[in-house]
């Protein structure tokens, strides 16, 4: 597939690198492609098949768009990508609505009766939004078999069944063995609200290499 990954941070790089490794044509979208940071330049040199472009240019030709921006930057980044460029496309939303106003650990800026995933879907009604991968650290998103040989759970939420199937196929290609379809995009409230627990576990365990397993 032609995949646009919006965001040059740790999550964006993990997804872009793994997707390129699996043979996808990957472009990473950023606010200003001419102002790439030194650390991006070093990463890009190790991933020569991944290209860098502005949000709109990266999204225009993509079949799948991945939102790997920060939670508070998601709607601005997607707006910059362009409603027409996103129309009809599957958008894998990984972002979490983390609020660092009062330091660490952050709180959630959206919770209970709404979610960031739902806000994105409302803002871009012609886009097929699927929430997934937001409940684990970047390295496990793309290399799940390093923990318990992949025997742990990830979730997908979205209104479009075909879009969820496409995302599930991508997650399976990454190595995930237990992908649970929670239902419509409203179920993203649950997975986003796992973050306070995830952050406390991270603080207690001292590593992000852990995940939940739904035993049934």
What do you see in this structure?
This protein has 216 residues and is an alpha/beta fold. The chain has ten helices and ten strands. It has helices at residues 10-21, 38-46, 55-60, 74-81, 83-86, 116-123, 138-142, 161-174, 188-192, 195-205; strands at residues 2-6, 25-30, 51-54, 64-67, 90-93, 98-99, 107-108, 128-132, 153-158, 178-183. An eight-stranded mixed β-sheet has the order 3-2-1-4-5-8-9-10, with helices on both faces. α1 links the parallel β1 and β2 (25-30). The longest helix has 14 residues, at 161-174. The protein is globular and about 45 Å long. 41% of the residues are buried. The model has no long low-confidence stretch (mean pLDDT 96).
Please state the CA-atom Rg, rounded to the nearest Å: 16 Å
- Discrete helix count: 10
Question: Distance N terminus to C terminus?
Answer: 34 Å
Question: Which stretches are poorly predicted, pLDDT < 50 over at least 5 residues?
Answer: none
Give the SSE map.
Layout: E1 2-6, H1 10-21, E2 25-30, H2 38-46, E3 51-54, H3 55-60, E4 64-67, H4 74-81, H5 83-86, E5 90-93, E6 98-99, E7 107-108, H6 116-123, E8 128-132, H7 138-142, E9 153-158, H8 161-174, E10 178-183, H9 188-192, H10 195-205
Parallel strand pairs: 1-2, 1-4, 2-3, 4-5, 5-8, 9-10
Antiparallel strand pairs: 6-7, 8-9
């Amino acid at each position: 597939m032609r995949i646009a990954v919006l965001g040059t941070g740790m999550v964006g790089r993990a997804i872009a690198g793994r997707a390129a490794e699996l043979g996808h044509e990957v472009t990473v979208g950023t606010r200003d492609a001419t102002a790439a940071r030194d650390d991006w330049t070093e990463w890009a040199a190790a991933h020569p098949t991944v290209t860098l472009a502005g949000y709109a240019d990266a999204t225009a030709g993509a079949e799948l768009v991945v939102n790997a921006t920060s939670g508070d930057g998601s709607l601005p980044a997607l707006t910059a990508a362009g409603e027409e460029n996103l129309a009809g496309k599957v958008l894998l939303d990984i972002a979490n609505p983390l609020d660092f106003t009062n330091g660490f650990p952050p709180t959630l800026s959206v919770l209970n009766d709404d979610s960031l995933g739902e806000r994105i879907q409302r803002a871009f009604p012609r886009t097929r939004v699927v929430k997934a991968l937001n409940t684990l650290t970047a390295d496990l998103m793309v290399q799940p078999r390093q923990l318990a040989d992949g025997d742990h759970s990830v979730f997908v939420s979205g209104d479009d069944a075909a879009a969820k199937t496409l995302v599930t196929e991508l997650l399976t290609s990454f190595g995930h063995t237990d992908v649970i379809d929670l239902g419509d995009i409203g179920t993203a409230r649950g997975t986003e609200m796992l973050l306070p627990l995830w952050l406390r576990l991270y603080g207690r365990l001292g590593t992000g290499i852990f995940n939940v397993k739904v035993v049934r």
